[in-house]
Amino acid sequence: MESATAAQTASGEGTGSSTVADLLPMAVEQYGDRPAVMFKDDSGKWTELSFAAVGDRVRALSLGLMDLGVEKGDKVSILANTRLEWTLFDFAALTAGATVVPIYQTNSSDECHYVLENSDAKVVVVEDAEQLAKVQAVRDRLPVLEHVIMIDGEGDGAIPMSEIESRGEGGDAAAWRERYSSVTTDDTCTFIYTSGTTGPPKGCVISHGNYRAMLDMTQEASVVDPTDVTYLFLPLAHSFALLIQFGSFDVGATLCYWERDPLKIVPNLTEVRPHYFPSVPRIFEKVYSTATASVDKEGGLKKRIFWWSIGVGSRYRQALRAGRDPGWLLKRQFAFADKQVLSKIRALFGGRIRQCVSGAAPINPEILRFFEAAGVLVLEGYGMTETSTAATISTPEAYKIGTVGRPFSGCDVKIADDGEVLIKGPNIFKGYYKNDEATRETIVDDWLHTGDIGEIDSDGYLSITGRKKDIIITAGGKNITPANLEAEIKQLPLVSQCVVIGDRKPYLVALVTLDPEEAVVYAKEHGLDPDLAALAADADVKAVIMAHVDQVNEKFARVEQVKKISILPADLSQEAGELTPTMKVKRNVVAEKHAQAVEDLYAK
């Protein structure tokens, strides 16, 4: 077996809290009037709240929950978008000694029922009437659920957030302090339900000690700097966003919440001008596609200058990374390239980005090199809910594009004989709630069996090459990992999703969907019907995508090449059961749902 460990550079000490329950009170005490959060108010202006102000609201809400009957160890669920109130209720429940159970705001009513019932939730906090309706539809099947609290507005059977806050404002601060001080590292901090690409979600039991260990690891690696403004749009129901929330409060940084509108993410970046931007590949892919597609369409001198500038930026930054003087000529070229092109790419992220992080899914290395050349460092890390978010990290001082970095200090990673990535450390979760069998299968001799296939190079950098369950074994017995092939095909702006299929088949085929926004632009430029289904059936559209697939095929061995494609009439979606809440493709669902399309590809 291969194995690796890595030490990271130490940074600030943070609050020094022993659990996540006492983290917020200690942050209030240490950071006081410093800005803790930013959000857009009802007038459309960005507003700040200090750590002290956040602390006052959290204390009132926590005492309100305690007055409602929330005891230590009770389960409090949150069903809402990423917003200030999510954070307030999260810390309120944790300081009351409760276990927080997040639910994705995109989940259906039945999915909400599953989590609420399986977790034994006593209280659920819903965002608005839309989320309340989901709970109301299944409430008669939730005998343990006692209270529904509503953030925005009022609804039948729901207690307004303002009432909970009012009930706690005159409460006993000493009782609150006693409650959060009673929480230990062995107590459960949260149940985070895996989004489940196969089978029903499983509730990952993560202790206060697990998250405190994870926070210590991120601080040692300087993930979030005390002076950072972090822009957060990722769902706080996901462990990645949750870690960023805890980490920002722990070091005294400022957390900025999105406007809860996907179309405003890029405009928000230019307004907020964050230093740290945790995201998912799709956002970087969209920015990359938009920037390169417009230039490629214009062609001519502008296109040549654009790509020449990217090349110059790449050579310049490689020289700096290697500790070399770029030289007089390259410096002059870089100054021109930066003024004409590179600075404009940085401006899309606000102009003062220190670091971006891409997680949850693989990203094409070409995109990472593109942004690196422009001075927007997009780094990858690796982990899963079961590792309390992360296990490896890339830093500005130590990264290799194409890898997911090296293990955090105190976290061990090794590769099993069959190629599976195994992880051990204080951040490994306690197991799956009410599912001892799955726990025993996942944690063996203290090693977490991730289900991912990977490699560790001589410098200790980990690369993830695929999922054990996703490996395609062709009729000829060849083992193929489809992820890299799919990522390359998705680089065409017109393509939204790609699922390569070929298990026990003579060759590979792909199911492709069109990007709704790009499809409209393409239709307008070519005088076609903008309807997605009509475009999917258009022979010229298929020819454009197949030409791109043929180019991609040249990068792969013959057995790994896609021979045929089928364009589906609609994009994949969570509502249709084809995507998880974190936008991962449920391969088995897609293959089963579109079995006829696959059969037709092999019949031709």
Description of the structure:
- The chain is an alpha/beta fold and 604 residues long.
- It has three domains: 15-183 and 222-263, Rossmann fold (3-Layer(aba) Sandwich); 282-351 and 353-468, ANL, N-terminal domain (Rossmann fold); 471-603, 2-Layer Sandwich (GMP Synthetase, Chain A, domain 3).
- The protein has 21 helices and 28 strands.
- The strands form eight sheets. Strands 1, 18, 19, 21, 22 and 23 form a six-stranded antiparallel beta sheet that branches.
- Helix 14 links the parallel strand 14 (355-358) and strand 15.
- The protein is globular.
- The two termini are 44 Å apart.
What fold name goes in the CATH topology slot of the largest domain? Rossmann fold
Shape: globular
Name of the CATH architecture of the largest domain:
3-Layer(aba) Sandwich
| Portion in helices | 25-40%
The profile of the biggest β sheet is:
6 strands, antiparallel
Counting DSSP E segments of at least 2 residues, the number of strands comes to 28
Mean pLDDT: 91
Roughly how many Å is the radius of gyration? 25 Å
**Terminal Cα separation, in Å?**
44 Å
Q: Which percent range describes the beta-strand content? A: 15-25%
Number of domains: 3
Discrete helix count: 21
Instruction: Classify the secondary structure makeup into a structural class.
Output: alpha/beta
Text of the CATH class of the largest domain: Alpha Beta
The CATH superfamily of the largest domain is ANL, N-terminal domain
Residue stretches low in confidence (pLDDT < 50, at least 5 long) are 1-12
